[in-house]
TrEMBL record:
Keywords: CBS domain, Repeat. The keyword Repeat applies. Residues 9-65, 74-134 form the CBS domain. The lineage of its organism: Bacteria, Bacillati, Actinomycetota, Actinomycetes, Kitasatosporales. It comes from Streptomyces marokkonensis. It comes from the Bacteria. The keyword Transmembrane does not apply. This is CBS domain-containing protein.
Length: 141
């Protein structure tokens, strides 16, 4: 069943500025139990930094996470986004087309207001699915 993104997204997206260190962003991800942070500059979306970006574009390349900025390793503009009034079907199509698992939700020309994940879409589509269960499971600390 198609729903609006505002009804399924996580509205409390964590954001950092491009000059934030990768180490600081990683600590935020751990503290918030999330796999990505939005990278914003002057309130507008600049990029997205995922846990995978940290591993592949920073650590695996031998960069010091304490000296490397998120702006240098995040997914750069243009970032695939959607609006809060877009449909979950549209989000699923964007994820499929671009092979991504998370989409920033923006309004007013680029101001981020949340994130929608593949797990959010699965839970909205079928709350009894395995992916929905995994999405709702407590963190594994």
């Amino acid at each position: 069943m198609t729903q609006r993104i505002r009804d399924v997204m996580s509205p409390a997206a964590v954001a950092v500025e491009p000059m934030t260190t990768v180490a600081r962003a990683a600590r935020l991800m751990r503290e918030e139990d999330i796999g990505d942070v939005l990278v914003t500059y002057d309130r507008d979306l600049f990029g997205v930094l995922t846990d995978r970006d940290i591993v592949l574009r920073s650590v695996a390349d031998g960069h010091d996470p304490g000296d490397t900025t998120v702006g240098s390793v995040c997914t750069p503009p243009p970032v695939v986004t959607l609006g809060p009034d877009d449909s979950t079907d549209h989000a699923a199509e964007l994820m499929r087309r671009h092979a991504i698992r998370r989409l920033p939700v923006v309004e007013h020309g680029g101001v981020p207001v949340g994130v929608v994940t593949l797990g959010d879409l699965a839970a909205a589509d079928d709350p009894r699915s395995a992916l929905a269960d995994i999405n709702e499971a407590p963190p594994d600390h």
